[in-house]
Amino acid sequence: MLLPIFAFAPLRFHDSIGFVILDPSVLRDRLIRWADQNSGSGHLAGLAAMLDLLEASFSAFPEVDIERMPCAGTQAEALRIRFRPEAARQVLLSGHYDTVYGADHPFQRCELVDERTLRGPGVTDMKGGLVVMHAALGLYLQSNPRHTLGLELLLTPDEETGSFGSGALIAEAAKRHQLGLVFEPARPNGSLVQSRKGTGNFVVTCHGRAGHAAKAPSDARNAIAALAEYLVAAHRLPAEMPGILLNVGLIRGGSEATNVVPDFAQALLDVRITRAADREAVLSRLNELAAPINAREGLRIEISGSFNRPPKECGPAEEAAFAVYQECGRELGLAPFSWIHAGGGSDGNLLSAAGLPNLDGLGVIGDHLHSDREYCVVPSLVERAQLCELFLKRIAEGKLILPQSSKR
Ligand SMILES: [Zn+2]
Question: Ligand 1 center to residue 44 CA distance, Å?
Fold first, then answer.
C-alpha cells in the first residue's frame, strides 16, 4: 500500500537520549543546526565543530562503530561510521561535510522562506544530504535489518576543494564495497546524476622578454599578448571537441609600470571531460596550441596541471541499481524522477575511478548551490531518507545483485 509521504506512522528509533521521531520538522531543525555551523573547506575550527556535531548525532545509534580518520596533508578529519563490516554484502554511503562558504562569507545562516523552502549555506550541498544519510541509517537500523548487508558511511572534509586529503580514504573504502551511494544534491526536478564530467586544473605560464615600451625596433617579447593569443585559441576547444568544457578562470601578469613590456603572464584553466578517453586528446591539443607561439624567438609557453577527478561514467551496475532505486520511489509514491549528465565533479568520480559502481545525487532536492541563493526543498529530506532506506532493504533482501568487490 502506498502512503502519502507525511501520513506514515511516526518512525522511532531509540537513542541515548530518548526516542527520535522521523518527522519533517525534526529533520529540518537538524539541517538548520548543521548548516548554521560554518564548515567552509578552509575553516579548520568550523570543520572541527561540524565534526563534533556529526559524531554526537551518529553516536546516538546503537550497533555502529564510529572512527575519526586522518586525511593526508590536512588537519581536518573524516568520520567513518560502520555497521556490520563482516556481512556478505557491503554498501558505502559517501558524503562531505565541508561547504564553499568560508568563515568570512556573508552567507552564514539559514532562513525558512516558506514551509517547503529552506535557504542556507550548504543546505543542499550537502548538509541536507548528511541529514538524509543520518535519517536513512536510523530508519534502516530500526527496521531490524537482515544480517546480509553491512554499511559504511564516510563523511569527508574537503570535497569542495578537490578531495586531495580524503582521496586515499575514498579509494581505499571503494575497494571494500560493492556499491557506492553518493548524497550530492538531486536536481530541482528530483533527477539523480547518471554521469559526471572529469575535472582538471591547469596553469598556463608564458615567458617573454622584458624591455622598454618605447623602444623601436625592439627585441622585447610581450608575454601578456602571447598568452592572450593562446587563451583565445584554447577557449575555442569546446566548439572543436564535443563533450569538453574549458574555462579561463584567472589571468595575471605585467605590472603597474605600463612602459615595461611584460616578460611574464599566467592563466588558470578549469577543464572538464566526458569520457576518460578524452583526457589524452585534450592534453595534446592544449600542447599543440602552444607550438606556434613556442616557435617564435623569445617566447615560451609552459603548461602544468592535471585531471584530479576522472569522469564518472555509467555502466551496467549503475543501470541495474538505478532501476531498483526508481522502483523504490514508485513504491513510496514519490514523484517520478530520472537521472541526468552533470558537468560538475563529485566523490562519485573518485569511487568510479577506484572501480566502485555508484549512484550519485541521492541527497536532497534543491538548487543554486555555491551561491547565497542556495535552498533545499524541505519535504525531500524525509522522502529521500525513506527512499534510501527502502533501497537498502531491497539490497539486503537480494533484490539487487551487487557486483563483486575487488578486495574484501
Ligand atoms: Zn557537494
Answer: 18
| Residue 185 CA to ligand 1 centre (angstroms) | 7
152: exposed, middle or buried (C-beta count within 10 Å: 0-12, 13-18, 19+)? buried
- Residue 209 inside a domain? The answer is yes
How much distance in Å is there from the Cα of 358 to the middle of ligand 1?
Answer: 15
Q: Please report the pLDDT score of residue 404 as a whole number.
A: 75
Is residue 190 located within the same domain as residue 212?
no
Which residues have their alpha-adjacent CB atom under 5 A from ion ligand 1?
A: 125-126, 184
Rounded to the nearest angstrom, the distance between the alpha carbon of 195 and the centre of ligand 1 is 15
> Residue 154 domain-assigned?
yes
- Residue 340 CA to ligand 1 center (angstroms) comes to 16
The verdict on 116 and 191 lying in the same domain is: yes
Q: How confident is the model at residue 276 (pLDDT cuts 50, 70, 90)?
A: confident
**What's the 126 CA to ligand 1 centre distance in angstroms?**
5
> How far does residue 271's CA lie from ligand 1's centre (Å)?
19
Domain span at 369: 12-197+311-396
Residue position matching grid coordinates 623602444: 215
Does residue 241 fall inside a structural domain? yes
Q: What are the pLDDT digits (tens) for 181-236?
A: 999 999 999 999 999 999 899 999 999 999 999 999 999 999 999 999 999 999 99
CATH number of the domain to which 202 belongs: 3.30.70.360
pLDDT one-digit tens code per residue, 58-108: 999 988 999 999 999 899 999 999 999 999 899 999 999 999 999 999 999
Give me the number of domains the chain comprises. Answer: 2
On whether residue 109 sits in a domain, the answer given is yes
Q: Ligand 1 centre and the CA of 95: distance in Å? A: 8
